[in-house]
Amino acid sequence: MKKILTTLFTLTLFILFGQSKSDYLQNHRFDLHATEFDFPEKNFKIVGFGAYHGSSKTEKTEYLLLKSLTRKGIIKYYLPETDFSIAHFFNLYLKKGDTLLLKDLVKHYGMRVPQEKSIETYQKWKNIKKLNDNLPKNKRFAVVGIDKIVTYKYTSKHLLESIQFKENQEKSLLDIVAMVQIDTTDFSPDYDSYSKRILKSFVSDYKKDPSKFENDIHDKFTFDHIITNLELSFDPSSYREKIIFNNYNHLASFYKFNNNPQFLRFGFGHLEKNREGNNVSFFTMLIENKIYKKEQVLSVIGYLTESRVLWDCIYDDDGHYKSYTTEGGFGIGDYEKEYFRGIDHLKKNKISDITLFKLNDKNTPFNDGNPDLIEIIMTDEKSNGDLVKGKSTTDFLDYSVLISNSKANTPIEEMK
Asked: Quick one: which of 119, 327, 399, 404 could link to 300 by a disulfide (CB 3.0–4.6 Å)?
């Protein structure tokens, strides 16, 4: 009898709990398409958005969030998932509007996230430029890159901007000048490419005798930051998340991040505010190292349903682009063999194809010790269930966005 009563009590709690989550979401949902939409919170230091890569409406969602956050001048810096130098040249695009530069930037930016080397990313940046141009000058935002070096092309160009290379005739520096001017080399940092050898030689030369270069360096902060990141790119044991964290902290004093809120777009794995086992994300590092209080760091995670993502780009043996594939099951997080626990709560309560849900309000039912929207249920592979067992949704994130009926991104190579 006691066992039956316990079972009934547990079942009753489950039913009530399920209803309370649904009721809560109905009162804490927003249509991102709405012209009057304002992001619900203003008092934060950094807000990050992330989702599975490769879906066109993910780019649209990011833009709509950025639009809301910048409309009233809340955001001063935009941090996309890229490095210091590519971000520098994105700023140049925002000032000059050079679409040939933009197309090349998207190609190089996409070396980190191939599914976003896309026409949709290109168009998003064109829209971001219009958005920034239409803001009052004192409310415009700048782009900052905190990621590990993506490719060496724009790192090399940026390095040359920080030093008077025309006055300096050291061979190791002139080799970088020649490499950038020819612009046909392999700029990959992922293996022993020609560009890596050239840059290694320069860094070694500089470290051995800085006096050969110091008088010609006119932007010491930029130069030193690039040198530090180049050295990290030469080290195969360097840990990307730690690099992101250290870059952020190093740039924080220069850009006064503590007084100038930022919007960050990275994959959602970087934005979790708690550990999955021993995995420590960038946002978790910010909190654990007391850079910011937990409530000053806002995580917005996107979830796909009834959508497709760009999956693979296909190249011939000579590296020439041929075609691409998309995926609509595995890879979107809402598939019978791979889905997020609790995603049905979002699906039942959406009000548009891009619906934002505020999960961190007072008395939220999403702090109940169940990892809804964090645990991935997988039928054929081991999931992360053991890593997040006993933790709540709000331990990891503050907002969710349900993105419905999205087409896959289209590779930039398809642009006519």
From this structure: 399
DSSP state of 278: T
Interatomic CA distance for residues 188 and 152, integer angstroms: 6
The model's pTM is 0.93
Pairing of strands 46-50, 297-305: parallel
SS3 content of the chain, % helix, strand, coil (to 5): 45, 15, 35
Reported as half-sphere exposure (CB side, CA atoms, 13 A), residue 356 has a value of 26
Among the listed residues 114, 20, 22, the one whose alpha carbon sits nearest the alpha carbon of residue 325: 114
User: Running DSSP on this structure, what letter comes out for residue 331?
Assistant: T
SS3 175: helix
Cα 144 from Cα 263, distance rounded (Å): 10
Question: Quick one: which of 254, 247, 245 has its CA closest to 292?
Answer: 245
- In a 3-state reduction of DSSP, which class is residue 282? helix
Pairing of strands 262-265, 142-143: unpaired
Q: Cβ(373)–Cβ(395) under 8 Å? A: no
Count, in order, helices (H) and strands (E) of the chain: 15, 13
* pLDDT tens sequence across 221-259: 999 999 999 999 999 999 999 999 999 999 999 999 999
- Which single residue is written with the structure tokens 């050969």? 212
Q: Are 384 and 275 in contact (CB under 8 A)?
A: no
Angle, CA of 210, 203 and 107, to the nearest 5°: 135
Cβ neighbour number for residue 83 with a 10 Å cutoff: 29
Listed residue (308, 356, 312, 359) closest to 334, CA to CA:
308
Asked if residues 144 and 262 have their Cβ atoms less than 8 Å apart, the reply is yes
Contacts of 318 (CB under 8 A, 6+ apart): none
Q: Which residues pair with 377 in a beta bridge?
A: 339
Condensed to tens digits (0 to 9), the pLDDT of residues 171-221 reads: 999 999 999 999 888 899 999 999 999 999 999 999 999 999 999 999 999
Contacts of 279 (CB under 8 A, 6+ apart): 387
How far apart CA 205 and CA 145 sit, in angstroms, is: 26
- In this structure, what are the phi and psi dihedrals at residue 193, rounded to the nearest 5 degrees? -75, 165
